[in-house]
Design goal:
alpha/beta; eight-stranded mixed beta sheet; 13 helices; about 40% helix
Length: about 280
């Protein structure tokens, strides 16, 4: 890579994050390294595995573990107020004694700067966690970044409750440049010309407004913020500062789709599209 700090931003998107997992696996296979990574929601998990150099790890979370009742189920929601059990995903499976542990030592030792975006439940403001906010077998940062309102309860980090980072900064391109990047690869999990609409977000916002009015307000503005973020990325792409890597279609995968064939198809798209990055760098 020539000159300047190169960043990667992974916007997440629930199970659609399997696409970005494919892109990042291609990067690991082909020696593509970034100086800085910012992950939102599922993107925070994708990037910490990338930071640790664990090629293929994320794939299993989407395509294999994601099918389990312990991972996502109505039973989880009834018992724990969380359809996706983040403690199972980022604890039981990911801890050092888990089925697929994060190589925390490798992630910590990696020279790549790592940030995970979450949203303060009380204020609706963005919080950018870094590696100093993580520890061996304490991946609360990823739980917080991925906690979709109502679908999941907010998660605590350092005594403060957080929801999904997409409420406050769904496409943190501006933040990447503020942190010193000269060029950025943006990983979207929808086609880049997709215009988000707020209807679904407004329904979820109504469910949390009584307890977390500021987070609910942030949620109602998520679509607008997402669309503005992608528009900015396109402007910067025209200047050669950003490369947008996005699927041409989502293969029928939505935020909580649990269809193995569709997920594998989207992952393969990511593996193929990763090739675009080498020319950009």
């Amino acid at each position: 890579m020539s000159g300047g700090k190169i960043g990667v931003v992974d916007v997440g998107g629930g199970f659609r994050g399997v696409y970005a997992a494919g892109v990042l696996d291609w990067c690991m296979e082909n020696g593509v390294r970034f100086d800085l990574g910012i992950g939102v929601s599922a993107g925070s998990a994708n990037l910490i595995s990338y930071c640790a150099g664990q090629r293929g790890r994320n794939y299993h979370f989407y395509v294999e573990y994601g099918m389990r009742r312990e991972y996502a189920s109505v039973g989880n929601f009834l018992r724990k107020r969380s359809f996706v059990d983040m403690d199972y995903v980022y604890g039981t499976l990911s801890n050092s004694d888990g089925e697929n542990p994060l190589d925390y030592a490798a992630a910590e030792a990696s020279p790549m700067e790592y940030f995970a975006v979450a949203t303060e439940a009380e204020t609706g403001k963005a919080k950018y966690f870094d590696k100093r906010d993580m520890a061996q077998d304490d991946y609360s940062v990823c739980k917080a970044s991925s906690a979709i309102p109502f679908v999941c309860h907010p998660y605590a980090v350092g005594g403060t409750l957080y929801y999904d980072g997409a409420l406050s900064d769904p496409v943190p391109i501006r933040k990447a440049f503020e942190l010193g990047c000269e060029r950025v690869v943006l990983l979207l999990t929808r086609p880049e010309d997709t215009v988000r609409t707020p209807e679904k977000d407004e329904k979820l916002a109504r469910r949390i407004r009584h307890r977390y009015p500021q987070a609910a307000e942030a949620l109602t503005r998520r679509a607008e913020r997402y669309n503005k973020g992608v528009a900015l990325a396109k402007e910067l792409a025209a200047q050669g500062k950003v490369l947008i890597v996005a699927p041409d279609d989502t293969c029928g995968v939505s935020t909580l789709t649990r269809d193995v064939a569709a997920l594998e198809k989207l992952y393969v798209k990511g593996l193929r599209d990763g090739k675009k990055i080498k020319a950009f760098l």
